[in-house]
Amino acid sequence: MPPWLVILEGLPKMLRPIMLLLKPLIQFFMLLWFLCIKIPSPDVFIVQNPPSVPTLVAVKWASSLRRSAFIIDWHNFGYTLLGLSLGRSSRFVSVYLWFEKRYGKMADGSLCVTKAMQHELAQNWGIRATVLYDQPPEFFHPASLEEKHELFCRLDKILCEPLGVRDSVHNGHLGMQNHELNETLLTSQVGSDIFLKPNRPALVVSSTSWTPDEDFGLLLEAAVMYDRRVAAILNEDDSTNEEFVWKEISQGKQYLYPRLLFIITGKGPEKEKYEEKIRRLHLKRVAFRTMWLSAEDYPLLLGSADLGVCLHTSSSGLDLPMKVVDMFGCGLPVCAVSYSCIKELVKVEKNGVLFSSSSELADELLMLFKGFPDGCDALKLLRNGTLEMGSSARWATEWEEHAKPLISEVISQNI
Fold first, then answer.
1. pTM confidence score
2. What is the mean pLDDT of residues 375-380?
3. Rounded CA gap, 1 and 210, in Å?
């Protein structure tokens, strides 16, 4: 489907209400054209919510016109997402909620992503929903040594280029004796044998849309705390020059606590603001890289990392972050921000840990990476737990057990 009229995006701010009205109207008629004319008549329409307006309205009309069943897959509430930018008291948010609730009740069946959302829909919306937990597709899996080495070869230039001033990762790269493709920041290849470097930095991945519902400042503060707490534990005072530490690391010295390399993936409106904050940091043992990865490389990065960090807090408090689902598919344990229903996904001390502040996250990084790479027993336990729990949970199984019976029932009732 072509995008809605680009000319509307250039309207002055004072005309923004007109734009907010015109956009869903144009999308509504485009959707009706495709759903009623361009595609064959289906047995059932399944629509993911949000967005709610005009999607739910258009699909309900199309299902009535084509005598098809209508199922909503509730991933969150659209009005709470709109409230992040306009404020919950906005009249537009109230109208959006009215449409979402009214047309949500018109569905022939509903799926939702958490038990907490199932309860909310039943108690306050009058909607009976079946819980269908998200599961990772098969291409999210732990990476082999060969896959890790090939990935790091492709990313080596980006990984070793600092966002601002020089850091421990950039300096370590300068100390490498071999810049050819048989050696990267984290791996080396000798003949046909590939191995992970013992003094490599621990690789921590966080994927973000750089939006207000993810407080990236938490991660920056935790990184600063980790850096300072490690220095204190190792009795390094302020006079200990980072150049001295970097030189020892490049010569092969291993410390009780490793360097941390945070790779932040994704695009979004607040990216530049936080990149500027990162440039002003001066840390001995922590480095940041931001990047956008291809659909092929992103699963490989998750499968090659040592830890995932999730800053998602949910606009409604009732949905679960898909990024964590993907991380678990790759056997990657997670540190996640704690909120109301996150424990439906993150099982504490089995496949991850939760935090509510930057200080708690810093403590967890110290606990998990102590003795890295060989002596970090706490991290190994989480990884083993993640692999065990992930091996039995895949999309096909979840679909067959929960979604398929509902769809079959709705179609049979609609005949």
1. 0.87
2. 94
3. 26
